[in-house]
């Protein structure tokens, strides 16, 4: 059950946070990391209201080994978000043995809970979302303020790519290129990694994320089949007859007002 909860945490984090660099083969930030895709940093800290949609996030990763062997993986997640900011992520993962498994996570900032659902066992492991006290968790602390005043890293280049239509929605792109100089990590030549994110201006989630890193391979995640309509409310509820257990502790990040830009 703990493992299921952890998988669910990663799935929603991908939806809510936009990564600032290429994860080692991770999903996008719809959020992992990726749409997110939808595709929030340490998990579920953003709530976007008034922008309902459904869509399918497809993530592919490929890594070429020194002997020429190519390892590829694919994940598919069906996302739904209603006007209140509730999010459902249903992820299907294909395993090396040919089998697949499905995990459902419902992030409900209205009720202040995350449901990690196991459809096979008909159970839901629930984690409470804790909202930080007023005035905490959103401002910069002394360490953060100092970090904001540091010089820009000369080995990191950020490019703004403008706007284009991707999968039927208008998106704004950013490309971050990081260079590890020769010798910095025992490398004989520079290591260059590239992370490109295209975020929907209206939905506030990534619709495409591409990464390239010679150490980890390449990955691409896209949010497809986007329908901008209110999903069925039953998608955000634990089905009747399921056994519900409460996880100890909880997760930080309750309902928060929208802020421009992002993800997870």
Describe this structure in words.
By secondary structure, this protein is mainly beta. The chain has a domain at 2-134 and 216-252. Helix content is 8%, strand content 43%. The chain has two helices and 13 strands, in the order αββββββαβββββββ. The chain has helices spanning 2-16, 142-148, and strands spanning 53-64, 70-81, 87-94, 100-108, 113-118, 123-130, 156-166, 169-180, 191-200, 206-213, 217-227, 243-246, 251-252. Strands 1, 2, 3, 4, 5, 6, 7, 8, 9, 10, 11, 12 and 13 form a 13-stranded mixed beta sheet that branches. The chain is globular, with a radius of gyration of 19 Å. The protein starts with a helix and ends in a 12-residue tail after the last strand.
Tally of individual helices: 2
Q: Taking Cα atoms only, what radius of gyration do you get, to the nearest Å?
A: 19 Å
* Structural classification: mainly beta
Mean pLDDT, rounded to whole units? Answer: 75
Please report which band the strand proportion falls in: under 5%, 5-15%, 15-25%, 25-35%, 35-45% or over 45%: 35-45%
Largest sheet: 13 strands, mixed
Q: SSE order in H/E notation? A: HEEEEEEHEEEEEEE
Stretches with pLDDT under 50, minimum 5 residues: 1-45, 136-143, 252-264
Helical proportion? under 10%
Number of E-type strands: 13
**Euclidean distance between termini CA atoms:** 24 Å
Q: Could you say which overall geometry the principal axes of the C-alpha atoms support?
A: globular
């Amino acid at each position: 059950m703990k493992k299921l909860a952890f998988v669910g945490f990663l799935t929603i984090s991908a939806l809510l946070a936009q990564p600032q660099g290429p994860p080692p083969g991770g999903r996008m930030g719809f959020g992992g990391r990726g749409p997110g895709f939808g595709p929030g940093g340490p998990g579920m800290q953003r709530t976007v209201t008034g922008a309902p949609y459904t869509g399918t996030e497809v993530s592919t990763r490929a890594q070429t080994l020194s002997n020429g062997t190519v390892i590829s993986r694919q994940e598919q997640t069906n996302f739904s978000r209603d006007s209140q900011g509730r999010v459902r992520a249903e992820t299907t993962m294909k395993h090396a043995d040919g089998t697949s498994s499905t995990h459902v996570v419902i992030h409900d900032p209205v009720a202040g809970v995350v449901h990690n659902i196991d459809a096979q066992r008909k159970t839901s492991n629930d984690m409470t979302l804790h909202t930080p006290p007023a005035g905490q968790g959103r401002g910069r602390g002394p360490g953060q303020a100092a970090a904001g005043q540091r010089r820009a890293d000369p080995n990191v280049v950020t490019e703004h790519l403008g706007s284009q239509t991707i999968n039927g929605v208008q998106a704004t792109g950013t490309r971050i290129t990081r260079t590890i100089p020769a010798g910095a990590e025992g490398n004989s030549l520079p290591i260059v990694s590239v992370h490109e994110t295209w975020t929907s201006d209206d939905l506030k989630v990534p619709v495409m994320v591409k990464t390239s890193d010679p150490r980890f391979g390449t990955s691409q995640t896209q949010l497809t089949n986007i329908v901008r309509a209110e999903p069925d409310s039953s998608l955000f509820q634990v089905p009747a007859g399921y056994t519900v257990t409460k996880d100890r502790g909880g997760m930080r990040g309750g309902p928060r007002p929208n802020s421009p830009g992002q993800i997870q």
